[in-house]
TrEMBL record:
Alphabetical UniProt keywords: Aminoacyl-tRNA synthetase, ATP-binding, Ligase, Nucleotide-binding, Protein biosynthesis
Any single Gene Ontology cellular-component annotation: chloroplast
Protein name: tryptophan--tRNA ligase
The keyword ATP-binding appears for this protein: yes
Catalytic activity: tRNA(Trp) + L-tryptophan + ATP = L-tryptophyl-tRNA(Trp) + AMP + diphosphate + H(+)
GO biological process: post-embryonic development; reproductive structure development; tryptophanyl-tRNA aminoacylation
GO molecular function: ATP binding; tryptophan-tRNA ligase activity
Family from the record: Belongs to the class-I aminoacyl-tRNA synthetase family.
E.C. no: 6.1.1.2
Principal place of residence: mitochondrion
Species per Swiss-Prot/TrEMBL record: Arabis nemorensis
Lineage of origin: Eukaryota, Viridiplantae, Streptophyta, Embryophyta, Tracheophyta
Location of this chain's protein in the cell: Mitochondrion
Length: 341
């Protein structure tokens, strides 16, 4: 393929909010038009912390369904479950032997998460999490990885590790073992996403909309019913200024709600200003609620269809895994040869 390849890992949470959708998922899905894209539901990563087994199975399928509902097009992109492609676990072990323990112990996320797990009681896989992530990426000779701020350090480690393995086992040494020589892995580049919208909480307008915020009232979940969306918007925090405006630092709620309206209605900022500048909250809120409902409704309908059709989802995931296995096995074959197996 002449298209550059992008790989995106998605945790199997099964439920996402408007912030995840407008800030990340929408942009990731758009990558499929420019790159050969692989969407991996990373269920192996989900077991690095104690997990609920029933929940994991359900969330894995629900997450796949959600991405498909959000527009992942299987004629352009592959969607698959990490554990369905055995090469991920195997490559992780092979990479571990080239990974200094110190590289992993200094990872910020390991330090934070292992502290929460009580230090010495944290699992070994929490420590090796970034090696698994490196495997997810380099298995596919990936050109680009869309990463948020929190994954930058892990991507840097993946690059260092790929380079290290290339140096240790690639080139002339590999050729002597009958290989083609040169690099075993492509070195992946970060893909800094287009500025996604930063969606703020509906209850304070100052903190970001988040799944960990205690109040469900503070967020719109992608799968919320029409009535619930209308109710949350009706009750969301506003102010007592006259008219509506963007970019007034004293009016964070106003800026947030107008921005959400702009994106989901597909209008320009100027068009929204023209339409809403003289509105009261009482006029604007139902308009926003309707636009949100109209935007999310097709996603929800599609999600229902996909989750109800087990055979279809199985087929998508199995085709995705087949495609991924083909690429992954070729990489593993090279590494085996180069490592002297
Ligand atoms: P949460 O903060 O709800 O736990 P995650 O940390 O799992 O969400 O983030 C998943 C993706 O969604 C990341 O790419 C993150 O940048 C994006 N994201 C999360 N919350 C928001 C938000 N309120 N606005 C925009 N993007 C967001
Ligand atoms: Na978070």
């Amino acid at each position: 393929s002449v298209m550059k390849r992008a790989v995106s890992g998605v945790q199997p949470t099964g439920s996402v909010h408007l912030g995840n959708y407008l800030g990340a998922i929408k942009n990731w899905v758009a990558l499929q038009d420019t790159y050969e894209t692989l969407f991996i539901i990373v269920d192996l990563h989900a077991i690095t912390l104690p997990h609920d087994t029933q929940q994991l199975r359900k969330s894995t399928r629900d997450t796949a369904a959600l991405y498909l509902a959000c527009g992942v097009d299987i004629s352009k992109a592959s969607v698959f479950v990490q554990s369905h492609v055995r090469a991920h676990s195997e490559l992780m072990f092979l990479l571990c032997s080239s990974t200094p323990i110190g590289w992993l112990q200094k990872m910020t996320q390991f330090k934070e998460k292992s502290r929460k797990e009580g230090g010495e009681n944290a699992s070994v896989s929490l420590l090796t999490y970034p090696v698994l992530m490196a495997a997810d990426i380099v298995l596919y000779q990936t050109d680009f990885v869309p990463v948020g701020e929190d994954q930058k350090q892990h991507l840097e480690l993946a690059r260092d590790l790929a380079q290290r393995v290339n140096n240790l086992y690639g080139g002339r040494k590999w050729k002597k073992l009958g290989g083609r020589g040169g690099s075993i892995f492509k070195i992946p580049e970060p893909l800094i996403p287009q500025v996604g919208a930063r969606v703020m909480s509906l209850t304070d307008g100052l903190s970001k909309m988040s799944k960990s915020a205690p109040s469900d009232q503070s967020r719109i979940n992608l799968l919320d019913s029409k009535d619930l969306i209308a109710d949350k918007i009706k009750r969301c925090k506003t102010d007592s200024f006259a008219g509506l405006e963007f970019d007034n630092a004293e009016r964070p709620e106003c800026n947030n709600l107008l921005s959400v309206y702009q994106i989901v209605s597909g209008k320009t900022k100027e068009e929204v200003m023209e339409e809403c500048k003289d509105m009261s909250w009482g006029t604007f809120k139902p308009l926003l609620a309707d636009a949100l409902i109209e935007h999310l409704n097709p996603i929800q309908i599609r999600y229902q269809e996909i989750t109800e059709d087990r055979a279809y989802l199985n087929k998508v995931l199995s085709e995705g895994a087949d495609r991924a296995t083909e690429i992954a096995d070729a990489t593993l074959h090279n590494l085996h040869q180069a490592m002297g197996f």
